[in-house]
Structures are given as C-alpha cells and as structure tokens.
Amino acid sequence: MSISGRQYQNRLKTALGEGAATIGGWVCSGSPAMAEAMATLGFDWIAVDMEHTATGLATAEAIFVICERYDVAPLVRLPEADPILARRLLDIGAHGFIVPQVEDAGALQDFADHLVYPPAGKRGVCLSRMNAWGDDFADYHKGFAPVIAPQIESARGIANVAAIAGLDCVDAVFLGPYDLSADLGCAGDFTAGPFTAACATYREACSATGKAMGIHQVDPDMDALNGRLQEGYRFIAYGTDTVATRKALGGLRDIAGRS
Fold first, then answer.
1. Structural domain contains residue 191
2. Helix (H) or strand (E) holding 237
3. HSE-up of residue 84 (Cα within 13 Å, Cβ side)
4. d(CA 193, CA 184)
5. pLDDT above 90: residue 258
6. Residue 223 is part of which domain span?
7. How many CB atoms lie within 10 A of CB 143?
C-alpha cells in the first residue's frame, strides 16, 4: 500500500489485457458536472475529447478528479500524438489515451516511449497530484502504465494495422469508421466493399494479436451496444454527453409547436 493509500495499478489496462469487455462514456461538453453525472452510471472509463472540442488542461484535470472519486478510469482522446501534451495530462491524472489518426507503428512506439519513465522510456519526472505530490512516487513509478488505444482511420492505418496492434504498448485498437470510410472514398457508407474489406483486415489484426477491438457507438442505443459486444468489441465508447442530452431534449420543439 502506498503512503497515501492509493492503488496505482491501472485496472482498465489489466481488464483489457485479461479479455474483459469495457464500456466508456464520452465527454464533449467540457462540463465537469456532465462528467460527474456520467460517472455515476457505472461506466468503466470516461474519455475527455480534446480533439474536437475546446476542452483544456484545467477542465480535464477537474474531470479526472471526478472520475477518481467514482472509481472510473479517466482517458483522453488527444488532438494528435503529442507526447508533451500527453505527459502533462498524465501528471494531472489521465489513465491513458485514445490516439487519433495512427498510421505507423514506429511513430506510435516513439509516442508511447515518452509516456514511460527512464530507463525504459523518456517521460520526465515530476512531483504531481498523480503521485501524491511525491509521497507515492516510488509506487506510481513501479505500478502505473497508461492505456494506449490507437485509432485506425485511414487506408494507410489499415495497411499497417497488424504492426500497430502488435506493439506491446497497445491495449486496444479503436476503429474510426467515419474517417476511415471517407479516406476510402465511401464516406458514411459502411456497406461499401472497400470499407468492409478494411474492417475485415482490422478484425484479423486484433484477433491475431489479442488486442481489444474498440469503437464509438455514438447513438445511445442499447440494442446497438449489445450488437457491438456480440461482434467482439471490448473497448466501446457509448454515446456522448452532448448527443445524449440533445436526444433526451429532442421533443421540446414538438411540445412547443415549433417546426
């Protein structure tokens, strides 16, 4: 047990490595209140989207604190594979990253090396809230490793997905269907031949390496979620705070008699 009483084993990373299915929430609003509401619902993890939102470091830190309170793993969808930003997010409490537009195994490995302390990696040492301001540094250093989930969103990513999935640092491989279909010239058509062939290549790579398949079920629909689980996905983002809120409030225009 650490001095502060905190446990530093990354339980989400362990669960993925053991073959468990995990369901995550997705925060686009940048609202700690919305994140807390989601954290009460039993999600295994919550991802803070920093790629397509205005969310900054201070807001992300507030959401991480909330996630820890409810024993939910806080993740970040990064704007890019930026090791400097990722290391700052680790220092303030992130448990891992969804990394967009990954196309090359070597580049991802270099990124991952910056998230691990020497001598194994290149992460800078600091005394931060993540290690109880230094009291638990030894325990954190020995016990913590971040979740890394590269997103495959392009034809080049599919061409290299076997090598990407085969990296030891990778815990899950997250399919980006909209970006991938657009890159393949069939934007939004998930029945098109090039897209289905790419998905087959992706599934084969995950199966061969034992890595969790990941996807975002944006529409909060339980039948669709169960379908994803039956397809073998084990790292599933379910809905977003903004889409779910909009859907819940969608009848207001009809009630008000507005078109």
1. no
2. strand 233-238
3. 0
4. 10
5. no
6. 11-152+212-255
7. 14
pLDDT tens digits, 29-80 = 999 999 999 999 999 999 999 999 999 999 999 999 999 999 999 999 999 9
Residues 187, 194: Cα–Cα separation, whole Å: 11
Q: Compute the distance between CA of residue 224 and CA of residue 217 in angstroms, rounded to an integer.
A: 7
For residue 40, count other CB atoms closer than 10 A to its CB. Answer: 10
Residue count of the chain, please give it: 259
Report the candidate in 100, 95, 51, 89 with the shortest Cα–Cα distance to residue 75.
95
Quickly state the pLDDT bin for 255 (edges 50, 70, 90). Answer: confident
Find the angle CA(28)-CA(52)-CA(172) to the nearest 5 degrees.
80
Q: Running DSSP on this structure, what letter comes out for residue 82?
A: -
Taking Cα atoms as reference points, which of 216, 142, 222, 138 lies closest to residue 176? 216
Task: Report the distance separating Cα 142 and Cα 138, nearest Å.
Answer: 6
CATH number at residue 89: 3.20.20.60
pTM across the whole model: 0.94
pLDDT single digits (tens) 99-129: 999 999 999 999 999 999 999 999 999 999 9
Residue in 52, 95, 114, 216 annotated catalytic: 52
Q: How many domains does the chain have?
A: 1
Residue 52 known to be catalytic: yes
Contact status, residue 116 vs residue 123, Cβ threshold 8 Å? yes
